[in-house]
């Protein structure tokens, strides 16, 4: 199976590259751009084109959101012309108002924000015009490296002693970019083998948690590891924000369908954070040893 993913520096693209490098049945081609022409699709002939999510559409400029939507639609048209399936990963932020219970796939987002509505319009076009598609709605992605990596950004900020702000009244499902990458490979392998299970799927981590609690847990685990290594680092504090004073917001995706159709289980974010922090510490040790070696 050959896959093409755009935006090579995105944390999901890097995660997919790592996952594919460990397999003999999946080839990955990464493209540094965030768009693709028909001629390139025809020459590469991938089994699917993957577009990483605009991870925080509510926090970027309207122009950036519109640009992303237009590029996705241009990619969809190119895929239609060449006959290549499209996989578009979408941020859970499109469910702007959340829901008191987990949100099922058939619930189409209906945000009030103009930029988010533009993304919903793109999704409507894909569903109407591109039969071979996967719209994969993901929770807030976290990884150690790449754009939109969140966890890497948190660690960098904490280690230099700067404070981090996070919402205490927003419940969500942090989602490992590595877990999403592995799930996409599994889903597309089944599609290539004839599963023919196109449509929309939710792919987020288990254990809903407030953004504030998630960040606090990251800080606690980081501090524990640093202390265990004998390092004394004054980590930045975590400060709680409250943006939903009248009613706390729950933005939790129900991921039952991806389990029923593809057998994909969601990974607990605590385990994934712990694994990534172990990797971060190992890389820190390697950097320290390299610096010590170069100075002797």
UniProtKB/TrEMBL annotation:
Cellular component per GO, a single term: cytosol
Cofactor(s) needed for function: Mg(2+)
Keyword list, A-Z: NADP, Oxidoreductase
Domain spans labelled RmlD-like substrate binding: 70-278
Example GO BP: O antigen biosynthetic process
Textual note on the cofactor: Binds 1 Mg(2+) ion per monomer.
Keyword flag Phosphoprotein: no
UniProt xrefs under Pfam families: RmlD_sub_bind
Record's keyword annotation contains NADP: yes
Any one GO molecular function term: dTDP-4-dehydrorhamnose reductase activity
Recorded metabolic or biological pathway in which this protein acts: Carbohydrate biosynthesis; dTDP-L-rhamnose biosynthesis
Annotated catalysed reactions: dTDP-beta-L-rhamnose + NADP(+) = dTDP-4-dehydro-beta-L-rhamnose + NADPH + H(+)
Enzyme Commission no: 1.1.1.133
Family membership noted in the UniProt record: Belongs to the dTDP-4-dehydrorhamnose reductase family.
Function: Catalyzes the reduction of dTDP-6-deoxy-L-lyxo-4-hexulose to yield dTDP-L-rhamnose.
Protein name in UniProt: dTDP-4-dehydrorhamnose reductase
Organism listed in the record: Halomonas cupida
């Amino acid at each position: 199976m050959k896959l093409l993913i755009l935006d090579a520096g995105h944390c999901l693209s890097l995660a997919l590259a790592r996952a594919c490098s460990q397999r003999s049945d999946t080839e990955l081609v990464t493209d540094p751009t965030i768009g693709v022409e028909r001629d390139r699709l025809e020459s590469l002939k991938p089994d699917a084109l993957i577009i990483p999510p605009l991870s925080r559409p509510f926090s970027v400029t309207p122009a950036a959101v519109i640009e992303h939507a237009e590029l996705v639609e241009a990619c969809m048209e190119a895929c239609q012309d060449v006959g290549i399936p499209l996989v578009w990963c979408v941020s859970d932020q499109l469910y702007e108002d959340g829901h008191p219970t987990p949100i099922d796939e058939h619930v189409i987002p209906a945000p009030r924000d103009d930029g988010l509505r533009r993304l919903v319009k793109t999704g409507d076009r894909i569903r109407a015009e591109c039969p071979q598609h996967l719209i994969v709605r993901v929770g807030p992605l976290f990884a150690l490296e790449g754009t939109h990596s969140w966890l890497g950004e948190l660690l960098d900020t904490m280690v230099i002693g700067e404070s981090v702000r996070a919402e205490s009244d927003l419940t969500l499902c942090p989602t490992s970019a590595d877990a999403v990458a592995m799930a996409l490979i599994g889903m597309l392998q089944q599609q290539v083998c004839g599963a023919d299970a196109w449509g929309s799927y939710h792919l987020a981590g288990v254990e809903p948690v407030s953004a504030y609690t998630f960040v606090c847990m990251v800080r606690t685990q980081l501090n524990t590891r640093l202390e265990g290594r004998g390092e004394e680092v004054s980590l930045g504090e975590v400060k709680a924000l409250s943006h939903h004073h009248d009613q706390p917001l729950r933005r939790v995706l129900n991921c039952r369908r991806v389990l029923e159709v593809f057998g994909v289980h969601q990974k607990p974010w605590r385990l994934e954070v712990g694994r990534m922090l172990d990797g971060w510490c190992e890389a820190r040790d390697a950097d320290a040893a390299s610096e010590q070696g170069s100075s002797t």
